[in-house]
Amino acid sequence: MIEFKNLFLQHFSEFFTLYNINEKIDGNTLLISSDRLYSSSFLRLICKFEKPTKGEIFIDNKNIFSIKDKDLNVGFLPKEIYLFENKTVIQNLIYPLKIRKIDKNTAKNLVFNEINELNLKNYLDFYQTPENKNVDLLNLKVKFLSPADKKIIALIRIKLRKPKYILIEDVFDGLTNNLIPIAEDLISKMAKDSKVIATACADTNRNCYADFKRIEIENGVVKK
Prior knowledge:
By secondary structure, this protein is an alpha/beta fold. It has five helices and ten strands, in the order βββαβββαααβαβββ. The chain has a single domain, classed as P-loop containing nucleotide triphosphate hydrolases (Rossmann fold, 3-Layer(aba) Sandwich), CATH 3.40.50. It is globular, with a radius of gyration of 18 Å.
C-alpha cells in the first residue's frame, strides 16, 4: 500500500501542485486530472524524483525516504520514454532481466515468449533505412523506432521486470490505433502481477482500466 499523509507539494510561491493530500493507494489505480501536472506529481513523488514540501509518503508502512533507491520496488514509465537508443530492441528488453541477474538464455526466452505472445512483429511500424533494412525487429536499433513503438517496447520492458508497483504516465497519448490493443493487453496483464498506478487526462474509459480504483484530482486537490 502507498499512503500520502498531509502532503503538500509547492512549486511556486502561492501555487501548490498538490494540496493537503491524504490518500491510500492499495491496488490498481487510475489518477485522473485535466492537467497532467497534478497527476504526474503523484508518480514523481512515489519514485522520489520530487520531495514533498510538507507531509509524508509511506510504501508498505515504510517512510519512502528511509528506503534506499536500489530497494524501492517501483517501475516508472514516464510520458517521455527513455530507452538505450543505440542498442537493439532485444538488448533493451533484456536489460532489466540482466539487472535481476537472470541468466542470458532464460532472459532471451522470456523476451521471445513475450514478443510472440503479443504477435508484436505484425504490429510495430518502424522506419526503413539503409541501416535497418531487412533486419529482424529484435535486432533493430531502438533509434529507428517511432515514438509510439518505443512506448510499447518500454511497456514490455517494465512488464518483464515485474516490480511490485508499476507507475504509468499517460501511456495512450500519441499511440497509433494499431498499438492501442497491445498497450491495453500489456496493462491488463501487468495489473495481475503488480499494482499499477496510471495517470490519464483522456482515455479514462479504456478496458484495461475497468476495474481500477479512480482518484480524480482538480487543481491539486483530490475530489471526494
